[in-house]
Amino acid sequence: MAVLLIAEINNGELNVDATAKAMTAAKKMGDVTVLAAGASAADAAAEAAKIAGVSKVLCAEDASLGHRLAESTAALIVSLAGDYSHIVAPATTDAKNVMPRVAALLDAMVISDISGVVDADTFERPIYAGNAIQTVKSADAVKVITIRTATFDAAEMGGSASVETIGAADNPGLSEWVEDKVAETDRPELTSAGIVVSGGRGVGSEEDFKIIEALADKLNAAVGASRAAVDSGYAPNDWQVGQTGKVVAPDLYIACGISGAIQHLAGMKDSKIIVAINKDEEAPIFQVADYGLVADLFDAVPELTQKLG
Amino acid sequence: MKVLVPVKRVIDYNVKVRVKADGSGVDLANVKMSMNPFDEIAVEEAIRLKEAGKADEVVAVSIGVKQAQETLRTALAMGADRAILVVAADDVHTDIEPLAVAKILKGVVDEEQPGLVLCGKQAIDNDMNATGQMLSALMGWSQATFASEVDIDGDSATVTREVDGGLQTIKVKMPAVVTVDLRLNEPRYASLPNIMKAKKKPLDEKTAADYGVDASPRLEIVKTTEPEARAAGIKVGSVDELVEKLKEAGVV
Ligand SMILES: Cc1cc2nc3c(=O)[nH]c(=O)nc-3n(C[C@H](O)[C@H](O)[C@H](O)COP(=O)(O)OP(=O)(O)OC[C@H]3O[C@@H](n4cnc5c(N)ncnc54)[C@H](O)[C@@H]3O)c2cc1C
Ligand SMILES: Nc1ncnc2c1ncn2[C@@H]1O[C@H](COP(=O)(O)O)[C@@H](O)[C@H]1O
């Protein structure tokens, strides 16, 4: 079995956490080659070569591969597909954009967001917002898969695979990048942070989200949010945790003013320890919380911030 | 320009899903079904394009069991002009895979020649997040996924996408497939008069075979199980007690 793992690269930099977690799943399927593709990808390729267990890294640098535009990236992956039984990627928004396109071009059914590898053909994946786990066996000649990183530990570093430079495929020229709006932050990334502090509608305003951020900063944590908090403009979209946002599984997840709708739980219920702070003792979030505190968050969160550390 | 909106009939998002004890799937008998929430957003966007004079016809299409008619009537009541039902299964427990759905949709697109297909980003039952991208691939069209803003301007569309790092704006050539995210718009409710009017709007019925598509699955469902339950936790009485517990657990 030969596996092509698509490295997660943002602006030329390897997302080591996502790629190394996907590597752990990929290794269970066969011998792993990593593809580093982008407008600039050489540094990321060199970094990916250090992930333990990687056999080889292919590096494709071309302007058409910048910003991970779906059509040109999919064309490149499809041009390489003949050599592989599995084409896999961490389930980031970039991969969710590209991989179903790759699968359709190869006449394969994509297997999205797997949380377990049973064998090289059989995989587990959550459905219905994580209310059920389905085990599926693929009959396709090539398996195209995205991997839920929250459920796999990162592969170690310390490898030294060779890097081979390859060309891009023809650019179909169907789309062009215009701009990115990315907030600069010194905080850890949401999907790899050891601690996440999240706020919901109960926080009440963008201004008051600062008390959530203050607690996060005290703990060197990432900040998350419920959909209601994002929809209301208290928090940016990339903070959304849940069925249709990011899936996190930190050591500690602190939910403040979040009721615990199933769509939110889908994104955080595999966290090791869950703390809920909510003034409604009936809130469903308490059913998954290891430690529940029935309190007004405007009192409890600042007090917690002050008493920690 | 004609806009095609694929809408899926799914379990209502408020329903607590039950896994069948024999591991054969999720119980959908006598459960409230609704239009996939993302597809309501797609229908809304299509209607707004028509109201803005950028589209002249909105066609809703659904693939699945006969009961998906109801979902299409909802789209018609919201303001779609006509609907196409492609019957591809008899049993409500049969989910048609995105690859097969995309192939059938390709057949519909070839026939209808829309300038734009507006899909939901994800069906909340199978959580695949794949159909729009697959259709775009089969058509050889451009794609713009997870849209929170769509601006159509002649032969191109400028789309802002919700991505892991924040927001990305791209410009795609038309015709295109756009998949919509939660914050694109707030879908309207159908008014009673519009629900009545929708009963008279045209709804064509087809089968997968009409498009020459074999809808049999590529993924064999080995089993469906409940996720592991979390052990029950405790309530703490104060912030001090919480801090103590977290220190004991070694996480702070
Ligand atoms: C298709 C679809 C996809 C979705 N995807 C997601 C997703 O990915 N992520 C997600 O989070 N949601 C998602 N949702 C939305 C989800 O169903 C809920 O609506 C949402 O999670 C609710 O957010 P919330 O808990 O912040 O708000 P609410 O449910 O309104 O809860 C607010 C809570 O704050 C508490 N509170 C209020 N004031 C205070 C105070 N002063 N102190 C302490 N507690 C207080 C209240 O008691 C209440 O429990 C999705 C919904 C749909 C239909
Ligand atoms: N059976 C179906 N009938 C009509 N549209 C569908 C169907 N399945 C998926 N879609 C469309 O594709 C989107 C993404 O679905 P999925 O790829 O299954 O997550 C949905 O939001 C719908 O717009």
CATH architecture of chain B: 3-Layer(aba) Sandwich
List unreliable stretches of 5+ residues of chain A: none
- Cα(first) to Cα(last) distance of chain B is 58 Å
Mean pLDDT of chain A: 97
Strand arrangement across the biggest beta sheet of chain A = 7-11-6-1-4-5-12
Domain Electron transfer flavoprotein alpha/beta-subunit N-terminal (chain A): 3-181
Binding site for FAD (chain A): 201, 226-227, 240-244, 257-264, 278
GO molecular function (chain A): electron transfer activity; flavin adenine dinucleotide binding
Protein name (chain A): Electron transfer flavoprotein subunit alpha
Task: Walk me through the topology.
The complex is a heterodimer of chains A (309) and B (252).
Chain A: E1 2-6, E2 9-10, E3 13-14, H1 16-27, E4 31-38, H2 42-48, E5 54-61, H3 70-80, E6 86-90, H4 93-105, E7 111-114, E8 116-119, E9 122-127, E10 132-138, E11 143-147, E12 162-166, E13 175-182, E14 195-199, H5 209-218, E15 222-225, H6 227-231, E16 252-256, H7 262-265, E17 273-278, E18 291-294, H8 297-307
Parallel strand pairs in A: 1-4, 1-6, 4-5, 5-12, 6-11, 7-11, 14-15, 14-16, 16-17, 17-18
Antiparallel strand pairs in A: 2-3, 8-9, 9-10
Chain B: E1 2-6, E2 9-11, E3 33-35, H1 37-51, E4 57-64, H2 68-78, E5 82-87, H3 98-112, E6 116-120, H4 131-139, E7 142-153, E8 156-163, E9 166-173, E10 176-180, H5 192-198, E11 203-207, E12 219-225, E13 234-236, H6 239-249
Parallel strand pairs in B: 1-4, 1-6, 4-5, 5-11, 6-10, 7-10
Antiparallel strand pairs in B: 2-3, 7-8, 8-9
Bound molecules: flavin-adenine dinucleotide and adenosine monophosphate.
Flavin-adenine dinucleotide sits between chains A (200-202, 226-229, 240-245, 257-259, 261, 263-264, 267, 278-280, 283, 296-298) and B (13, 37, 124).
